[in-house]
Amino acid sequence: MYKGGSTFINKFDADEFGQQRSSNIYYPFASRGDWELGSWLLRSGLSMGAIDVFLSLDLLKVRKLPLSFHTAKELHGRAELLPGGPRWKVQELRTSHPTKRPVLLYWCNSLELVQSLLNNPGFRNAMDLSPFHLYDSAEHLYHVYTEWMSGEDAWSMQSQIPAGATLLGTILSSVTSVTCAYTLVRTPDIIISVLDSRNSVLFSFSSFTSYMGFRI
Questions:
Q1: Which helix (H) or strand (E) holds 180?
Q2: In this prediction, what percent of the chain has a pLDDT beyond 90?
Q3: What is the DSSP pairing of strand 210-213 with strand 103-107?
Q4: Which terminus has fewer CB within 10 Å in the chain: N or C?
């Protein structure tokens, strides 16, 4: 085990509300039940209007549930107090010809995306970070190749990097997606994935890693 950067839990505890979480692990929510309801609503796909209607039901009022939020806006406000992932960045691009509106490039730092995947505690037992050789028998007669970490390239690269460092199989792929319905502008959707060599599961950031946003 080698010391490295901070983990997700380190960052979670070090943020500005870490002190409040020492007495209430569900902060900024009041309790586990408060967090469970908020989490379900945020992932339900309901519009903010529909969430407002739900929270105004007489059933919730009669039961006098100890909720920390009573509107969709309050719920989203509490969720935004939680530590976030990699931040989107925006940069205006200078063009050689005039445009009606600025040409903007929205992007995320690729290294931060991969670090965020590695920091996810749900993946702690799901990644192989060391190259390996797999054989079909104890006599090592036939070398079996499965994932990239079982190949000679990974083995060779590992032997050339400093002690304490390791390899991480990362896949960069793209598909063409419509980013502007107004003009049917098609730009590549960049997907960064980390391959789990044990279970052949891909952990990915499948939303746009970078795209040009503009309307004509």
A1: strand 170-180
A2: 16
A3: antiparallel
A4: N
**How many C-beta atoms lie closer than 10 Å to residue 198's C-beta?**
13
- Which of left, alpha, beta for 185 (phi over 0: left; psi -120 to 50: alpha)? beta
CB of 117 within 8 A of CB of 169? no
The whole-number pLDDT of residue 198 equals 54
Rg, C-alpha atoms of the chain: 23
Q: In which residue are the tokens 């083995």 written?
A: 155
Read off the pLDDT of residues 35-86 as tens digits, 9 standing for 90 and up: 999 999 999 989 999 999 999 988 877 677 788 999 999 999 999 888 777 7
Assigned token pair, 41: 């609503």
**Contact 207/91 with Cβ under 8 angstroms?**
no
Average pLDDT over residues 132-143: 86
Strand order in the sheet with 210-213: 89-93, 103-107, 210-213
Q: Rounded distance, CA 126 to CA 4, Å?
A: 19
Residues 78/68, Cβ–Cβ less than 8 Å: yes
d(CA 56, CA 109): 41
State pLDDT tens for residues 8-25: 777 777 777 878 888 888
Tokens describing residue 144: 């079996």
Query: Which residue's structure tokens are 């020492």?
Result: 22
Q: What is the pLDDT of residues 147-158, one digit of tens each?
A: 778 888 888 888
